[in-house]
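Q: My labmate handed me this sequence with no annotations at all. I'd like to see what the chain might look like in three dimensions before we decide whether it's worth expressing. Could you predict it?
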Amino acid sequence: MGRTLPELIAQFDLTRITCHSALLDLEKLPEFNRLHLRRLVSNATQRHQLVEKLQVLVEEAFGSQLSDRAVLDPAYVERTMLLRQDHICRLQDLVSPAYSYLWTRPAVDRAQLGTISEKVDEIAERVLGLLEGSGGNLTQDVLNAELKKLSEGLAGTKHSNVMKLLRMALSGQPQGPPVAEMMMSLGPKEVWERIQKVLSS
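A: Here is what I predict for the chain of 201 residues:
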């Protein structure tokens, strides 16, 4: 799966052509589309065009809901697309409800997070400290490790609950991408804003 055009040409054999009706496996279409999208993203010129298309899609899908129009910044849009390219089949997937957190801030307050863990303030403060101490130079692997350490330092609190709380604070969704990946997509500034919003609610 995922052969290039030159490879297909090299393997083409006229003697293997028959008059039978062609069969199309519809279940494979999403994967074909995913591979095609990845090829487009890997090309600088086509990636730039995809960024422009995604900006339009975000504007159309969320418009007045965009509390911070910095999410339309080409660098942010491109980073988001690169991080999620292996998880989507179409560019439109990135403006589906599952990914709305990328473009709009969730309406989540301290009381909601308190149902997950009573240590909302401590978890939030530790995440803010992690962001402040990193200088914005965290990779996803390092962030995963640091979040694990953060959880281990909270007596009586499971790592899974810490991740659930952070996911809810950042996206308003109980399920979704790994928290570290979510934080990388949003960027330190936006993560900081969302955590601070929870603390002040």
